[in-house]
């Protein structure tokens, strides 16, 4: 599915998937999720593609879901575009890299748990504000995040929803490396090209071996999250919090209990 806000290009074995909606802080719409899902599926069948690289713009990776679009097109089934994208990400056989500049909010952070290598700029930041929006985490992050950063830190990140810096994200293992903001794109592309030049079958087999035990568990977690997410989305507290977000006001505390 074509979408002007998702731009793809294949060069030297690397398929770049750019989130390009800077006027809305790269907030993701249903159409953008569908386009990213299609891009991943096409990359899997294209022999010219050896590695996949996600990136945004210099000052933003993605601010997460476009709340207005999200409320009009809720992710209330496992067949919704957002879950199609997450499944494509989870089952991708080819290495996936991400270059993060600016903020990575919500799914902008949880999607990184499915990437094989993530580099961020020094001024990048990460946050998981699901509870603050009266929602629950997605993308299998309720399982993957504790495995990556530990149970206590995962609880802190998901329950409080506070922003952390690129340096902190690297220290806890959420990302691989931090470089100067201006070097993020070139660093990520260099790493992608290194992988693209490696023996194809061995590269794919190694990724498969690394993921073989965890994929069924992540898939199960993702389904459970999807059901809970749908329930939370239709709850009075979520409707109040999300409406308040759109109306740029504080939520009514009496409606959050």
Automatic annotation (TrEMBL):
InterPro entries: ClpP/crotonase-like_dom_sf, ECH/Chromodomain_protein, Enoyl-CoA_hydra/iso. Coiled coil: none annotated. Keywords: Isomerase, Peroxisome. It is found in: Peroxisome. The keyword Isomerase applies. The keyword Isomerase applies. This is Enoyl-CoA hydratase. It comes from Pendulispora brunnea.
């Amino acid at each position: 599915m074509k979408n002007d806000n998702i731009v793809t290009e294949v060069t030297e074995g690397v398929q770049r998937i750019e989130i390009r909606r800077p006027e809305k802080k790269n907030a993701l719409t249903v159409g953008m999720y569908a386009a990213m899902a299609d891009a991943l599926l096409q990359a899997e069948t294209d022999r010219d593609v050896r590695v996949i690289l996600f990136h945004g713009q210099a000052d933003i990776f993605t601010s997460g879901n476009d709340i207005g679009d999200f409320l009009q097109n809720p992710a209330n089934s496992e067949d919704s575009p957002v879950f199609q994208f997450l499944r494509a990400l989870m089952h991708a056989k080819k290495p996936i890299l991400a270059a993060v500049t600016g903020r990575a909010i919500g799914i902008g952070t949880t999607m990184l748990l499915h990437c094989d290598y993530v580099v961020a700029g020094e001024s990048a930041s990460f946050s998981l504000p699901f509870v603050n929006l009266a929602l629950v985490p997605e993308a299998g992050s309720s399982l993957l995040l504790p495995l990556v950063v530990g149970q206590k830190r995962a609880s802190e990140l998901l329950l409080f929803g506070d922003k952390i810096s690129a340096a902190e994200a690297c220290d806890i293992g959420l990302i691989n490396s931090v470089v100067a903001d201006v070097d993020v794109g070139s660093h990520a592309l260099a790493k992608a090209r290194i992988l693209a030049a490696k023996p194809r079958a061995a590269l794919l087999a190694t990724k498969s071996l690394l993921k073989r035990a965890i994929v069924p568990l992540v898939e199960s977690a993702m389904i459970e999250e999807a059901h809970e997410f749908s329930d939370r989305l239709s709850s009075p507290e979520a409707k109040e919090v999300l409406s308040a977000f759109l109306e740029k006001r504080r939520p009514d505390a009496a409606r959050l209990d």
